[in-house]
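In the previous chapter we treated chains in isolation. Here, by contrast, the input contains two separate entities that must be folded as one system, with a combined length of 690 residues.
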Amino acid sequence: MATLEIKDLHVEVTDEENQTAKEILKGVNLTMKTGEIHAIMGPNGTGKSTLSQTIMGQPSYHVTQGDILLNGESIVDMPVDERARKGLFLAMQYPAEIQGVTNAEFLRAAVNARRAKDDQISVMDFLKMLDKNLDILDMSESMTERYLNEGFSGGEKKRNEILQLLMIQPSFALLDEIDSGLDIDALKVVSKGVNAMRGDNFGSMIITHYQRLLNYIVPDVVHIMMGGRIVKTGDASLAKRLEKEGYAGLRDDLDIDVALVDEN
Amino acid sequence: MDTMQTQTEAAAAVQTAAQQHHEPTWLINKRLTALDQMADLPMPLVQRFKYRDWELMPGELQWKASQSDLTDVATSSVQIVQIGQTTVRVNLPEELQQQGVVLTDFFTAVKDYPDLVQAAFMTKAMQANENRLASYHTAYLNAGVFLYVPNNVVISEPIDIQLIQDNTLDQALNSHVLIVAGRNAEVAVSERLTTVGDNANLANCLMEVVAGENSHVTIATLDELGPKTMAYVERRAFAEDNATVNWAVGFMNEGDTIGNFDTELNGVGSRADAKVIAITDHDQRMGVNTKITNRGKHTNGNILQRGVILEDSELVYNGIGDIIHGASGSESEQENRLLMMSSNAHGNANPILLINENDVMAGHAASVGQVDEQQLYYLMSRGLRREAAERLVIRGFLGAVLSAIPAKAVRSQLIDVIERKLENGR
């Protein structure tokens, strides 16, 4: 069993234009284990993506206080690739496009990156694994010969993120708004992919605005984030309640002093 | 008076060497005329690139044999291999010989096919009096290859031309590859330039392509001249009506190098596609002109140059689209992009459009930049180490030319060279 612990995490991001630092996360605490699915919900601008990017190691986010522990080991000083090899995966909201590199070539490099030099995956095994996962995601084989994310539609990019998840088999997957821009059919396919990973050796943190995704990937734990903190934690029913009352209602119930970005 | 004297002596020396070599009078005269013009001609213009102090014209015409066992180039079915001035292998299948295809060393061709050579050698694709290096090349020519594909002959197998510059000797290589494709002919050529030995020498390597009406000529090159070789590499093509000339140049020389790639779209409806990739490293300096001239009506030229600059090196790409008055309905497109991999690297991507006709389409794009950090972050977030991620992005960046190379063996050789350079150059 693997664990991911976030302890009193404070994170700043530097505004490139005026060179000012802004604190986004103001003391996040969270512990998750493999075998669990956690959902993080919250209004826009509350720091959900910052949390996932900081865990993964995006260099623009600076940890000013607190710690992130993977299996008890602090990872805040590790570069992103090392964190990935230790078992973290982030399905990104805006994956980069890379011309001239085929999806298949990239996937193989990613799979091999976490294997020892003398234990690289054979072409046969790789193709077998690829075929199986393409099938789960209802993706055509031609997708793997296209250049990585180049010219992919929004839905194709999301599917491709999940394909990487299935190929890489991380301990913990952070899914950042994997449902945004997806129609209901695509949403089902993507959920099917994530559910295929469920098991004792896999944990996931699902960031979403909407409860809808959680009908397909049922979480064990739901956290509500507001103003850079987790303000409430509950089970799957919490997401349903949120859907009914909205963030403003929940904020007022909890008597929290936070301005919501989209509030009128 | 002294210069006159020197000039006369030089002419006498060239004449003597050419006569010893049993060359025909027309060729000797061509050499002497070129030699006579040399002093008055300008050096080739490579914008934004200074090479005035380069010693590009060591003046001596000598015949020296190279040891044919200096290399172990793999055999291919249609092939010519030369080390220095020495031809070590020619493979031309019986079937192609019967169709009239000629593949031989240049001076044998001068003897055996004088009319074919004389009609095409420095008469169409380029002239000996264009600039000083062209005249130098003509006067001091000491090696070469002749390929002739008669009218209507289609060759499916790529023709493999391997030129090994011999740095075990003290001898400039002045090599001329002359390719003549007849009407409706189709041929793909891969040319590879390499070096053996550790002496410092000049390589002046020219290729001329005369593409006849409706012919289809593809040239893929892998240039890998050694670090002690200063190189002037010029490749020229002349396209007649509806001819197509495609270039894919892998410019991987290790020494200081000038490249001049120039296609003249002379015939109506002729087309050219010129793709060039280069990687420079150490303190190497490289300047490249890639030019397509639209002279005929409804001609189409497309230039794509990509380069990666490592360590303290310099790479200058000039893309030149020249549309001559009267070439109505023509198109000229170009893209020149450079990646700088170190803060000491120097690069210049310089699009030059010369348009003297109204009814045309022309466009250009140019950029000099670094590897995109967002792309690296994305790849690294999947576990790839920074170096591996960079290599993948760079290989993707250079991929446009790789995919244009017809011979699979050449393509994988080029990939190997790229990987090796990126591995070492950090």
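Helices of chain A lie at 48-56, 80-85, 103-113, 123-136, 154-168, 184-197, 212-216, 236-254. The CA atoms of residues 112 and 120 of chain A lie 6 Å apart. Compare these points with the single-chain example from earlier in the chapter.
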